From TrEMBL:
Transmembrane segments: 91-116, 128-147, 159-176, 182-199, 298-320, 340-361, 373-399, 405-431, 443-463, 483-515
Compositionally biased tracts (Polar residues): 252-261, 272-284
Subcellular location, principal: membrane
Region named Disordered: 252-286
Protein name stated in the entry: Chromate transporter-domain-containing protein
Membrane topology reported for the UniProt record: Multi-pass membrane protein
Length: 522
């Protein structure tokens, strides 16, 4: 009897602990699913304000680490980051619960809109197009502002400034599934090479060779013909030749000194000198000490096993997706496989994945270009993750082929979110063993800068398809009409200097879109 009572009390205590954790997660995360507008760039800023500055669940350095991991892996970037924050704070169940609280409000809203879009005529009323274009224009301003503010933290020296610039411009110039992971890799490699000074010695040796060659040419150059000159001319000539003499005297002793390496721009002492704020003398010799409350209980072996199981599942899904294996595979399975593929191989977060999803649904003939464009405009103005766009597309696909809209939306939702969450969960296990190493910190610096640069790429891509109207199949550039430029500028300036938060800025953009319609139609 006493044993049974003890077990009951232990179970009650366990349930009480779980209920307390669930309440903490709900209290901290419920508002995010309703107010986090603007896509991943804005979400990252919101998470920093909430979990670093206010609640202090994580510190700034851990935030930067999670930001790098979320950007470096495929899948929904801001969703992965929120999942990681709650995983570190309260464990696996809390992380899953936070994901549901974060994603479901927007997912339910996109599902309802898909039902409405499936029942409309071939064309929408003109005010609706103006409203959607205004939402897109304001969203561009909000994302641009978030990119600028994130740049202040990612840029720590001239190198990271260059990385932000080059990754942004490179992302604008080309677009492919493999391209964005390559840019992130190159960004991390650049800071690793720079911080470890792997190229400094070869460059210094080449520079020393050039200096010695110039000195040799000067020392063996033929003397100019002697001419008679007055004392004043002689003085003037001596004054004019003085810089060369000084340079020669500066180089020659260095070359003739007992230390053959004394003329190197890089000395042994230089090699130990930090090259950036992130490579301080302390970090050179001491690993990062992670507070116990910020450590994960996942081992690197468990993390590796999770990632391995995921890739095994990915191979199975892709093999079954092939027409050679299942020539007549069910529509809903093909929908799941396409979303699973998109969630696995597309990097860069919502602003990148949303346009690329066209290949997986419009090219298949499941969703019309017009409906895709409407959904693209709507998701920019919805709170929560942009990957909820898959719910909209899955529902429309199921409706078009006589299937259950709820089932289609659920399959697409699970398919596109599952890969990123599983990958980031496994990666955190490996990260726990590698995070204190100096080279990891060097790579993170570049990955952070490259990720911020790709946010500017997202601004550019949304800008190019944000203007929609009757008859548009793919959207046009917001720059085609000066009014949308004004809307974008208003959104940016309002957030930057007048404290407009994202919902207010986006709502203002919608109102300005309707104002344009009223003026033009009159």
């Amino acid at each position: 009897m006493a044993i049974a009572t003890s077990r009951d009390s232990g179970l009650a205590g366990h349930v009480q602990v779980l209920a307390h954790r669930a309440w903490n997660v709900l209290r901290a995360n419920w508002i995010l699913g309703f107010t986090s507008f603007g896509g991943p760039p804005v979400h990252f800023k919101i998470f920093n304000d909430k979990f670093v500055q206010k609640s202090k669940w994580i510190d700034e350095q851990l935030y930067q680490e999670l930001f790098s991991i979320a950007q470096a892996l495929s899948g929904p970037a801001s969703t992965k980051m929120l999942y990681c924050i709650n995983l570190i704070q309260d464990g696996f169940l809390a992380a899953v619960f936070s994901f549901l609280v974060w994603s479901l409000p927007g997912a339910i809203g996109m599902f309802g809109l898909s039902i409405g879009v499936s029942n409309i005529n071939d064309t929408l009323p003109r005010p609706v197009y103006a409203l959607l274009s205004g939402l897109n224009a304001a969203t561009v301003g909000v994302i641009a502002l978030a990119a600028v503010e994130l740049s202040h933290k990612a840029i720590t020296d001239k190198l990271t400034r260059i990385v932000v610039f080059l990754s942004a411009t490179a992302g604008m110039l080309y677009n492919a599934l493999w391209y964005f992971p390559l840019l992130m890799f190159l960004a991390g490699l650049a800071t690793l090479v720079f911080d470890y000074r792997w190229l400094h010695r070869p460059v210094a040796a080449a520079n020393r060779g050039v200096i010695r060659l110039q000195w040799w040419k000067r020392s063996h150059a033929p003397s100019p013909p002697q001419t008679q000159a007055t004392d004043n001319n002689t003085t003037l000539a001596a004054a004019q030749s003085q810089p060369d003499d000084i340079e020669l005297n500066t180089i020659a002793p260095s070359a003739q000194s007992n230390n053959p390496r004394s003329d190197l721009p890089l000395t042994e002492q230089d090699a130990k000198t930090p090259t950036s704020p992130h490579m301080s003398a302390t970090t050179e010799t001491e690993p990062r000490i992670v507070p116990r409350e910020l450590r994960l209980s996942i081992s690197w072996q468990a993390g590796t096993a999770i990632i391995g199981c995921f890739f095994l599942s990915f191979i199975i899904v892709m093999v079954l997706r092939s027409s050679a294996v299942l020539p007549a595979s069910p529509l809903l399975y093909r929908l799941f496989a396409n979303m699973y593929l998109a969630g696995t191989i597309i990097f860069g977060g919502g602003p990148v994945v949303v346009p690329l999803l066209r290949e997986y649904v419009v090219a298949e003939g499941w969703v019309s270009p017009r409906d895709f464009l409407i959904g693209l405009a709507l998701i920019q103005a919805f709170p929560g993750p942009n990957f909820n766009f898959a719910v909209f597309l899955g529902s429309l696909t199921a409706i078009k082929f006589g299937q259950s809209a709820v089932v289609g939306a659920l399959i697409a939702w699970v398919g596109i979110f599952f890969p990123g969450l599983i990958l980031v969960h496994g990666t955190l296990g490996i990260w726990g063993a590698a995070r204190s190493r100096r080279w990891v910190k060097a790579v993170l610096r570049g990955v952070n800068a490259g990720a911020v640069g790709l946010i500017y790429t997202a601004v550019y891509r949304i800008w190019n398809v944000g203007y929609i109207d009757e008859g548009f199949q793919f959207g046009r550039s917001l720059g085609d009409d000066p009014w949308w430029v004004v809307v974008t500028a208003t959104s940016f300036v309002g957030g930057r200097w007048f404290g407009f938060n994202a919902p207010v800025a986006i709502l203002l953009g919608a109102v300005m879109g309707l104002v344009r319609y009223g003026v033009v139609s009159s």
